[in-house]
Amino acid sequence: ETSDTTYLEDDTYDAGDPKTFDLNFKGPVAKRSCTDVLCCIIFILCIIGYIILGLLAWVHGDPRRVAYPTDSKGHFCGQKGTPNENKTILFYFNLFSCTSPSVVINLQCPTTQICVSKCPEKFLTYMEIQFTYRTNKNYWTYYSQFCKSTFVKPAKTLTQVLLDDDCPIAIFPSKPFLQRCFPDFSTKNGTLTVGNKTTFEDGSGKTRNAIELRAAANRVNKILDARTIGMKIFEDYATTWYWILLGLIIAMFLSWMFVILLRYIAGLLFWVFMVGVIGIIGYGHCYQEYCNLQGQPNSHLTVYDIGIQTDISMYFQLKQTWFTFMVILCLLEVFIILMLIFLRERIRISIALLKEGSKAIGYIPTTLVYPLLTFIFLSICISYWAVIAVYLATSGVPVYKVITPEGQCKHENTTCDPEIFNTTEIAKACPGAQCNFAFYGGKSLYHQYIPTFQIFNLFVFLWLINFVIALGQCALAGAFASYYWALKKPDDIPPYPLFTAFGRAIRYHTGSLAFGSLILASIQIFRIVLEYLDRHLKEAQNNISKFLQCCLKCCFWCLETVVKFLNRNAYIMIAIYGKNFCKSAREAFNLLMRNVLKVAVMDNVTDFVLILGKILVTGCIGVLAFLLFTQRLPTIIEGPTSLNYYWVPLLTVIIGSYLVAHGFFSVYAMCVDTIFICFLEDMERNDGSTERPYYMSQSLLKILNEPSMQTKKP
Fold first, then answer.
1. Same domain, 413 and 486
2. Which of 296, 360, 433, 685 has the most CB within a 10 Å radius?
């Protein structure tokens, strides 16, 4: 019997063509050339442009505009070298006006805001000051520090003060928080008070109570409530930080142990789980419910008899419902058992590959440290993106807008000049209107393109994030491929495989990795745009547009998932053969399609083991942390005894443990995927003869040598 397979001794091997094989292939190709050079050039130019954008944002932006509060004139409170250097706190003239609808639209409270050195500590009104000024001038001295300009005496009438907006008509006891004066709320005998008072004069002749002031400062109150919680959370972290660190170290150790032990327990975990699933499905709960309904009134009715009911529990009182469940579960159990029978060999191969992945990590332990390098790179990208976003947002000069307390002026939200605002027609047409600082902007070419720069900042950020992940996948794939294609393991494994693979990926395949990352970043930016449109056009949408938008979201999510899968396998082929992205993606796709059943089984088995590992590590650490922080282990170890919220360090430990486990298992998943691709290649190019021996381990070779899968003959 003749074979139509061709064996090549040059570099013309095509992994996508099962009819041609390179006879001299012995692992990742060493002689390589740069791939996807054009995309590499574009990527480098984008990075240079990103750096230039950062420099421009640094020149024009001013993060102090975020750190320091800004008064109605656009001046910083507490900025050195200015008249407000010693005035570090922002004071609101009339906090009651913050209930205006314009607050939601303009994100600004329509009242005058000035910088002060300290917050008011007592109740005073402007009218009270006018009466007491003749006998005691100290009250006016205290009150005048909350006015826009210094007055010798309170000579103006209340009406004139309101028109000129020079002073607040009343001040209340306040405390500084986030460099702003907020009312000093407290509770006395279950009653809300401000400065130990339940009612007070608002300066305009009206009597107000603390509840009204709290309603006026509703948004502020949420921050005030968060202040106490924040302080308690900070105290809990200060008390338990070393316990949290210890928990993360234990999680790291457990993750490492789980990965190493998988070579011994992977098969046991899978089959125990499958037996458990079959047992749960086969549990006779449906039959018991069916028997219990025998003789019950109306249980013989059908779904058609009772029709559509809003109370779903009514359907569970019918024998027909439980009989249907029994039939479905029986069919499901038969299907699972048949799948396990027919796919048992592929399941055995998958379990053997899982064990082989654990063995590979044991021989190349430096791969477990690589997630730390990825974390550092991702942190740099995220930090750079956040800094540029802040600098871009604070670029420009102060822009002032017309704000009215009632929000019913036709000039509302138009640009104005605070220096001449009182002499303009707007002030006359809209009594009570103010020209307050709104945001930072400008009319130059740079300021006009700030929204475009923000989009560019986001897009390059996504590109860099995906590139860093792609670089890690390619480097790990190269290291694990070096392990697989070593004929005598571990003697033939090249020295420093991870470092060598990382260098190859950077030197030769930056363009290919950037190409795959660009595709993924483009899809992600479209998803972000869809989310943005959905949030801002939610009220204007009808049912049809909502349905279409949901379909688009679902399609883009599926597309992103598929592209991630294809990219991952393309990077493995790049690490092995050193070809460009398109060829590698095509060859990986063709290889996987020729072994689609193995791929499906392998993915499911791997996902199950990794999910089980994450649950096991996170659950163990979570249980120990719960027992420790709730003082359930006093006889074994004494934990912290004075926690305000034990769930704060508990959640921190649980989330941190999950992230640690995810970092370890992401390396393991990449290892298994790489070994799987290499295994498929090994199966197609070799036959186990002396001339073309298998590179797989002895455990895999034993499975292949069974009668169901005969070794090929030369």
1. no
2. 360
